[in-house]
Structure formats: structure tokens, C-alpha cells
Design goal:
With 150 residues, this protein is mainly α. The chain is built from eight helices and three strands. Helix 3 crosses helix 4.
């Protein structure tokens, strides 16, 4: 495991959290099934990359290239170890960050979507609703943030 990431073993599973995000007050537990194979390090490396770069556009091809696997094999291996597809895991990271950001500030929803790596506000709202079960809180509107609430 990478030294930058804390790990805990509970009930035969490995939980790791990105130290960079922990310093910001965010904790993203990642359940990776424990296997005694070299693929553990590859999946952990991909997860670490996703946790560090989740605000940027990330493709399965990019992740597979980072760990040196074909996109198809990487996707199968990632799902086997985490029970999530790489895309679903990335969306979950983004929504978790968005939920924490919305709870701790009054940023406009457009800014939150952008900071979390979503290309459109509609996609952000749809994903938020699917993961959380309700629409994101409105916060303040983009126009109010420019005029100071007037």
C-alpha cells in the first residue's frame, strides 16, 4: 500500500483513505476485498489516483493506462475488488464531496457541480438524486453570489 494512504483491515477487507483529502476534513473509505495477488496494488493505485484527481475528467482508458492493463480487464478487475465499476466509484467520490461541500458552505450549486468534476448541472443533479435520494439543496443562486444577495 502507498504510504500516503491510511489503511485499516476489518472483517477481511481493506479500507484506505486518501491522506490529502483527510487533511481537508474529508474521508472516503474504500472497500477493497483482500486478495493475496499483485492486482491489489494496481487497484489501490487506481483508487488513489481517482481520489486525488476526481475533480478532473477521468476515463477508464486513462486509469487502465496508469496501471498498465487493458480497459476491459481493468474494469473487470476493479469491479471484482470493489463491487463498483470505475465510473460508479468516481461518481460516488464526486457526490460524497459535493454533499460535504453543500453541507459546509453556501456555494452556488453551479460552482459545487463544477468543483466536483461534473460537466453539466443537469448531470450533477441527476447523479445526486440517484445517490442521495433527493435533489441537492439550492444554496444560493449564481446571480445572488455575484450581487451579494441583492
Amino acid at each position: 500500500m502507498c504510504k500516503r494512504y491510511s489503511t485499516n483491515v476489518k472483517n477481511g477487507a481493506v479500507f484506505c483513505a486518501c491522506a490529502d483529502l483527510n487533511s481537508l476534513g474529508y474521508r472516503y473509505p474504500v472497500q477493497v476485498l483482500q486478495y493475496a495477488r499483485p492486482q491489489d496494488a494496481l487497484i489501490t493505485e487506481a483508487i488513489a489516483y481517482m481520489e486525488k484527481h476526481f475533480q478532473e475528467p477521468i476515463t477508464v482508458q486513462e486509469l487502465a493506462g496508469i496501471v498498465g492493463l487493458s480497459p476491459y480487464y481493468f474494469s473487470r478487475l476493479f469491479r471484482k475488488y470493489t463491487n463498483f465499476s470505475p465510473h460508479a466509484y468516481l461518481i460516488d467520490l464526486r457526490i460524497t464531496f459535493a454533499r460535504d461541500l453543500l453541507a459546509s458552505s453556501q456555494h452556488p450549486i453551479e460552482q459545487v457541480a463544477e468543483r466536483c468534476g461534473f460537466n453539466s448541472i443537469q448531470h450533477f443533479i441527476r447523479c445526486f438524486r440517484q445517490h442521495i435520494g433527493c435533489s441537492p439543496p439550492p444554496g444560493i443562486s449564481e446571480a445572488d453570489s455575484r450581487t451579494g444577495g441583492i
